[in-house]
Specification:
Number of helices: 4
Strand order of the largest sheet: 1-2-3-4
Radius of gyration: 20 Å
CATH class of the largest domain: Mainly Beta
Mean pLDDT: 90
Order of helices and strands: EHHEEEEHEEH
Low-confidence stretches: none
Helix content: 40-55%
């Protein structure tokens, strides 16, 4: 089983920080309009939300694994709810490599696998180096093409 690049933790902790700040702004707005809470309570709530988000990010990194098996991409992830996913190569429609501005700054990419089906029709493998993401994308594409030929009637 392969793990993600450790820098993904920075992205997830940053996302937790952004969420905590936005929540703090909303709470401050509500506080000014309806209630009069002490500033220490607002700062405490924002700090607690950030701390919980950071702990969640570190635990998620520890649990996130993926593996290319003989006939499927297998993923394990989750902290509160643990999810195991098998994506059969024969169901793969196409594969994308994505990287937003923050991911680019951290030297990370994600691979998105689109599958046949309607529910949860895409699977994302985050936290890969761009080279590893391209290699995984090429491998998945080749395995999907091979399995398509094997599945033909």
């Amino acid at each position: 089983m392969e793990s993600l690049n450790p820098r993904i933790r920075l992205l997830w902790v940053a996302q937790a920080g952004i969420f905590a700040v936005v929540l703090g702004v909303v709470l401050a707005g509500v506080d000014r309009q309806f209630y009069s809470l002490p500033t220490a309570v607002l700062v405490g709530v924002v700090g607690l939300i950030f701390l919980l988000g950071a702990v969640y990010a570190v635990r998620l990194y520890a649990k996130w694994r993926f593996e290319l098996q003989d006939d499927a991409l297998y993923l394990e992830r989750g902290v509160i709810t643990f999810v195991e996913t098998a994506v059969p190569f024969v169901r793969v429609q196409h594969v994308d490599t994505q990287f937003g501005p923050i991911e680019r700054a951290l030297g990370l990419s994600s691979v998105v696998i689109y599958t046949a089906g309607s529910r949860n029709a895409d699977v994302r493998v985050p936290g890969l180096t761009p080279e590893r993401a391209r290699k995984l994308q090429d491998t998945l594409r080749d395995l999907a093409v091979e399995s398509e030929a094997d599945d033909a009637v």
